[in-house]
User: What shape does this take?
Amino acid sequence: MARRIPDHLHPNPAVVAIWRVVAALPKGQVTTYGAIAERAGLGRSARQVGYALRIASPDLQLPWHRVVGAGGRLSLPREGEAYQQQCRRLSAEGVVVNNGRVRLAQSTSLDALLWGRQRC
DNA sequence: TCGATGACCTCTA
DNA sequence: ATAGAGGCCATCG
Assistant: This one.
């Protein structure tokens, strides 16, 4: 699951710390940028999380799609390619994406099947 | 050194 | 529910 991220992959320790936290996110669970910053020991530097994900190499295979904005809002341009991919990958994990929003905190797999009209 | 720039967040109106 | 203003903070040119 939580794949290890070597220190030498990036000179900035904060970036590596963020990658580690993201890599540890369980499948089907979503969190916010702010929460990740907190867990990485960066306080309110939520923007750093966005930065770290943006510069991350695809080779890392980070589950970046499990990271959303506050209130469960997808924080990517809706017209972009990345947005579509995030929607699909979340849906594939049973996370309901409704009009650019996901259910934070609750989001059990059960009502995912009941509520789930995957409108990406 | 400094202003611009975000895959952000919170509070108002 | 939506929009705008401010705040935040590391990076970048």
